[in-house]
Design goal:
The protein is α/β, with parallel strands linked by helices. The chain folds into three domains: about 5-240, Glutamine Phosphoribosylpyrophosphate, subunit 1, domain 1, CATH 3.60.20; about 250-440, Rossmann fold (3-Layer(aba) Sandwich); about 450-590, Rossmann fold (3-Layer(aba) Sandwich), CATH 3.40.50.10490. Helices cover about 35% and strands about 25% of the residues. The chain is built from 16 helices and 27 strands. The strands form five sheets. Strands 3-2-4-1-10-9-11-15 form an eight-stranded antiparallel beta sheet, covered by helices on one side. Strand 5 (about 90) and strand 6 form a beta hairpin. Helix 4 (about 125-135) crosses helix 5, helix 7 (about 255-265) packs parallel to helix 12 (about 400-420) and helix 8 runs antiparallel to helix 14. The chain is globular, with a radius of gyration of 25 Å. The structure holds 5-amino-5-deoxy-1-O-phosphono-D-mannitol. 5-amino-5-deoxy-1-O-phosphono-D-mannitol (M6R) binds next to helix 8 and helix 14. 5-amino-5-deoxy-1-O-phosphono-D-mannitol binds near residues 398, 485, 602 and 605.
Length: about 600
């Protein structure tokens, strides 16, 4: 989980590292630390808390030097405190780490017997000690030897006491990016962290080592130097800043029209009457997609809710069997052969460990793997047979918003693509749906300010409540789940999403005049059924908060609160109904004075199991 940065170049390393760490803080914010080589020795400053706390401490002890490493931590081994904070130093080695070393206890015992003393509870100090134990002057040989003994995941950045001109990085199962600047070099856990400094990146693959000496770098695998292409990204660094909004989350909610628009642009050509969905097909023969018999959709959290939504689309439009699964469950199933299955892995970060491992397992079972990711060059993007990207831009708020609707957009296009090649829709029908999708950014744009005003006002009534229910049927069921997830993760109010028809099998017992019940009631296939659920809530004095289409007046007196959203074609309604739910969660959390962008116990990218 954690974020790491390394810098070697002409600038003051401390400034670059602190600035870049701030953009990685979404990965963890239990503690932060920095190590700078000043030409003679390495100075380390680290402390519990956020990067702003670290900055305060640095003001008291300025750190000159052009080489350094930094870290922001999401605690796995050992409490968040000053001692467990990274960087760790043992002998001449100073190191920061993201990942988990599974055999660290055994290694610690072995090293303790050799007389090595440990001060922290971390697995990272064990890695540092092991490297220092073997270090006789050749850092590459030493690293290869030490890494061979480590089990688990690691991305590390390392400097040595001997040289103020040497920065080393290594990755296995945790992300690490090399940033190639103009006469300066960087290491980071992701690209947005470095956008103000460079747009030229080389994402390291598993078991690759990068050695940076002065202005030069070499990437090595199994002891041999390899050539890797530089990826140039065109992300705007400004889009990684708050742009006038109080929180990244609010900014990202408002960015959805742009994010969806950028994602769908160019995915279909009316001239060619054909789709251009896949960005990288890694030489995979796309004609094989005509023969798939089944789709499996696998993801975590919000990305899983996007999968669940698309299940209804794939079934009803592409007429194909679909299974959805939470990645952490999927990866421990005893799967049969997946020949003829298209296994789709959806991830904003492209680094979520459960999703990544699930994909690796599906690949072994011979599924065709498709990654839908937001971060270019991320591990899932690199390892999937075929890849398509959402173009949401960097998502900084821990609560996912614009990535979700962008994922929906890709999944809907994929549904149309499969419907076309499987002949379940005519080209005219495909184009009609695609035209409707193209209207979505404008419809959200026109609606979002109204939704923001309404939800801001509504939030005042619910700051002291302990629990919420969110109900929806069919396409609105995943949206109910998503609304509940948003509320609980940032406002710490218990919230449960439920299929509305299932309510009478249990949750109805919870309903009384202290229970707010959000009911998603668009017109369409299951509207009449949902109306009955509204009655069930009202007759038990539940505080009904109803969302329905703006062309429907029938429910105006059926809820304690009734809100209207723009009426659009039925399959696309999830795009609209999720907007007020994101905003309601945001305003409740904001008014409760909580840390909206970095809620407690969470991290943006979950790269540990
Ligand atoms: O990067 P991913 O899409 O793979 O992340 C999956 C989940 O960790 C993520 O959606 C999480 O649930 C968010 N905090 C939800 O807002």
């Amino acid at each position: 989980m954690c974020g790491i940065i390394g810098y070697l170049g002409p600038r003051k390393a401390v400034d670059v590292i602190i600035d870049s760490l701030k953009r990685l803080e979404y990965r963890g914010y239990d503690s932060a630390g920095i190590a700078i080589h000043n030409g003679k020795k390495i100075s380390i400053i680290k402390r519990k808390g956020k990067i702003s706390d670290l900055e305060e401490k640095i003001k008291e002890n300025p750190l000159p030097g052009n080489l350094g490493i930094g870290h922001t931590r999401w605690a796995t081994h050992g409490k968040p405190n000053d001692i467990n904070a990274h960087p760790h130093k043992v002998g001449r080695i100073v190191l920061v780490h993201n990942g988990i070393i599974e055999n660290y206890k055994r290694l610690k015992e072995k090293l303790t017997k050799e007389g090595i003393e440990f001060y922290s509870e971390t697995d990272t100090e064990v890695i540092t000690a092991l490297i220092n134990y073997y270090y006789k002057g050749n850092i590459i040989e030493t690293l290869m030897k030490a890494i061979g003994e480590l089990e688990g995941s690691l991305a590390i950045a390392l400097i040595t006491e001997e040289s103020d001109n040497l920065l080393v990085g290594y990755r296995k199962d945790s992300p690490l990016i090399l940033g190639v600047g103009d006469g300066e070099m960087f290491l980071a856990s992701d690209m947005p962290a470095l956008l103000p400094y460079t747009r030229r990146f080389i994402p390291l693959d598993d078991e690759e080592l990068v050695v940076i000496e002065g202005k030069d770098y070499r990437i090595m695998r199994e002891g041999k130097v390899i050539n890797k292409k530089i990826t140039v990204v065109n992300w705007d660094p400004i889009s990684a800043e708050k742009g006038g909004f109080k929180h990244f989350m609010l900014k990202e909610i408002f960015e959805q029209p742009r994010a969806i628009g950028d994602t769908i642009r160019g995915m279909y050509s009316f001239e060619d009457r054909d789709f251009y969905v896949f960005k990288d097909n890694n030489n995979f023969d796309l004609t094989k997609l005509s023969n798939i018999r089944k789709i499996m959709l696998v993801a975590c959290g919000t990305s899983y809710h996007a999968c669940l939504t698309s299940k209804y689309w794939f079934e009803s439009l592409a007429r194909i069997e679909v299974e959805t699964e939470i990645a952490s469950e999927f990866r421990y199933r005893d799967l049969l052969n997946l020949d003829g299955t298209l296994a789709i892995f959806v991830s904003q970060s492209g680094e979520t460990i459960d999703t990544l491992q699930a994909m690796r397992m599906a690949k072994k079972k011979r599924a065709i793997t498709l990654g839908i990711v937001n971060v270019i060059g991320s591990t899932i993007a690199r390892e999937a047979d075929i890849v398509t990207y959402t173009h949401a831009g960097p998502e900084i708020g821990v609560a996912s918003t614009k990535a979700f609707t962008s994922q929906l957009a890709v999944l809907f296009i994929l549904t149309l693509y499969l419907s076309k090649i499987r002949n379940t829709l005519t080209v005219n029908e495909v184009e009609t749906y695609y035209q409707e999708l193209l209207k979505i950014p404008r419809i959200i744009e026109n609606y979002i300010k109204q939704a923001n005003r309404e939800m801001e006002k509504l939030s005042n009534n619910f700051l002291d409540y302990q629990s919420f229910l969110y109900l929806g049927r069919n396409l609105m069921y995943p949206i109910a789940l998503e609304g509940a997830l948003k509320l609980k993760e940032i406002s710490y109010i218990h919230a449960e999403g439920y299929p509305a028809g299932e309510m009478k099998h249990g949750p109805i017992a919870l309903i009384d005049n202290r229970m707010p019940v959000v009911i998603l009631a668009p017109t369409g296939k299951v509207y009449e059924k949902t109306k009955s659920n509204i009655e069930e809530v009202n007759s038990r004095d539940g505080i009904s908060i109803i969302f329905t289409d703006d062309t429907n007046n029938e429910l105006d007196d059926k809820g304690v609160y009734v809100f209207k959203v723009p009426t659009i074609v039925e399959p696309l309604k999830p795009f609209i109904y999720v907007i007020p739910l994101q905003l309601l969660a945001y305003h409740i959390a904001n008014k409760k004075g909580l840390d909206v962008d970095q809620p407690r116990n969470l991290a943006k990218s979950v790269t540990v199991e």
